[in-house]
Write a structure and sequence with these properties.
118 residues, mainly alpha, two-stranded antiparallel sheet, 4 helices, 67% helix
Length: 118
Amino acid sequence: MDSSNSPSTKPLYRGTQIVWYLLGLLEILLAFRFVLKLAAANSTAGFTSFIYGITHIFTAPFLSVFRITKVSGNIFEWTTLLAMFVYWVIAIGIIKLFLMGKTVSTPEAANKLNSQEK
């Protein structure tokens, strides 16, 4: 049986697309946060306030990991970069879990196992 024609292939593909989309969206929001902090954007401005508010929940677990680095009033927020990296690693892990559910033929499995032994 060709694993590309398996009934599980399309849902797995869609699942990976959703994970990549959500990661991309989150990374863009966090990148905006990083740039706004770095540029010392006015935190009371609507857009800035929106970005800080929506991304706070994603950066909160990392806020005390590093000290804040200030350069001439601008903030280099290491925690946002750490959050971006951690969420990227989590997304890769989720994708790998999805791919483990992919149907493979016996010859494909044997080839992959043999390549892992080397």
